[in-house]
TrEMBL record:
<dbReference type="InterPro" id="IPR017871">
    <property type="entry name" value="ABC_transporter-like_CS"/>
</dbReference>
<comment type="similarity">
    <text>Belongs to the ABC transporter superfamily.</text>
</comment>
<dbReference type="InterPro" id="IPR052156">
    <property type="entry name" value="BCAA_Transport_ATP-bd_LivF"/>
</dbReference>
<dbReference type="GO" id="GO:0015658">
    <property type="term" value="F:branched-chain amino acid transmembrane transporter activity"/>
</dbReference>
<dbReference type="GO" id="GO:0016887">
    <property type="term" value="F:ATP hydrolysis activity"/>
</dbReference>
<feature type="domain" description="ABC transporter">
    <location>
        <begin position="2"/>
        <end position="231"/>
    </location>
</feature>
<dbReference type="GO" id="GO:0005524">
    <property type="term" value="F:ATP binding"/>
</dbReference>
<keyword id="KW-0547">Nucleotide-binding</keyword>
<dbReference type="InterPro" id="IPR027417">
    <property type="entry name" value="P-loop_NTPase"/>
</dbReference>
<dbReference type="GO" id="GO:0015807">
    <property type="term" value="P:L-amino acid transport"/>
</dbReference>
<dbReference type="Pfam" id="PF00005">
    <property type="entry name" value="ABC_tran"/>
</dbReference>
<keyword id="KW-0813">Transport</keyword>
<dbReference type="InterPro" id="IPR003593">
    <property type="entry name" value="AAA+_ATPase"/>
</dbReference>
<dbReference type="InterPro" id="IPR003439">
    <property type="entry name" value="ABC_transporter-like_ATP-bd"/>
</dbReference>
<keyword id="KW-0029">Amino-acid transport</keyword>
<protein>
    <submittedName>
        <fullName>ABC transporter ATP-binding protein</fullName>
    </submittedName>
</protein>
<keyword id="KW-0067">ATP-binding</keyword>
Length: 231
């Protein structure tokens, strides 16, 4: 489904990604791990066309993403839940959801299905984005991405700053998406929850992939945590 090979990217003259490569198959959940500043968000930005790669290959279902604008990449089926949620503060919950709706890949996700999935959003449908709690904003950000009917859902720090109960609700939601066969690329700080949910993990260190493996392999290999993931 998604193939990333030897990806290089940076900001201005500063290279940040030197050699990033991984694959995501249909229905798979893959995480990008690594300490702060190692290039996880930049990898996601490169996938979405928000940072222009300086080298390597990005292909989605055999089609190159090179040089495509973000809206075209979204149309191909990559749906982003960005870091910091970025919901529209002056639109209602319903308007936020409708703003991104796209039925190009079938009607799997409709307004009603998003409300069934996150009943809190149904309760708050008339509230403005700015009136929501952090957890509700996060559900809205996920709902908004689902409304694009993405084939690959990408979440960047979706549980950051949330209370444990709300965080669990988000993890349960992602678990339900997995059961439905939704492919997901995940960046988050909660390693245990990710190990339970994901199939495979890719560890970044200063813009290079230094380890990749299954959840079982990650759980069994303490040295990966000690060497690449502890602050
Ligand atoms: N807009 C930007 N302009 C210049 N440098 C940037 C920019 N965004 C990120 N960087 C730098 O790129 C490097 C990788 O950052 P990135 O956000 O991809 O890391 P990350 O692994 O997602 O970390 P975090 O968990 O802190 O978000 C860091 O050194 C960071 O300072």
């Amino acid at each position: 489904m998604l193939t990333v090979e030897n990806l290089q990217a940076g900001y201005g003259e500063t290279p940040v990604l030197f050699d990033v490569g991984f694959r995501i198959g249909p229905g798979e959940i893959v995480t990008l791990l690594g300490r702060n500043g190692m290039g996880k968000t930049t990898t996601i930005r490169a996938l979405m066309g928000l940072v222009r790669p300086t080298g390597g290959n990005l292909t989605f279902d055999g089609q190159s993403l090179a040089g495509l604008p973000s809206y075209r990449i979204a149309q191909l089926g990559l749906g982003l839940v960005p870091e910091g949620r970025q919901v529209f503060a002056t639109l209602t919950v319903r308007e936020n959801l409708v703003a991104t709706a796209a039925a190009r890949f079938g009607d799997r996700w409709t307004l009603e299905r998003v409300y069934d999935f996150f009943p809190r959003l149904a309760e708050r449908r008339g509230h403005l984005g700015s009136q929501l709690s952090g957890g509700e904003q996060q559900m809205l950000a996920i709902g908004r991405a689902l409304m694009t009917n993405p084939r690959l859902l990408i979440l960047d720090e979706a549980t950051e700053g949330l209370a444990p109960l709300i965080r669990s609700e988000i993890w349960r939601g992602l678990g339900r998406l997995k059961q439905e066969g939704q492919a997901i690329l995940l960046v988050d700080k909660h390693l245990d929850a990710m190990t339970r949910l994901a199939d495979r993990h890719v560890v970044l260190e200063k813009g290079h992939v230094v380890w990749c493996g299954s959840s079982t392999e990650l759980a069994a290999d303490q040295s990966v945590r000690q060497r690449w993931l502890q602050v």
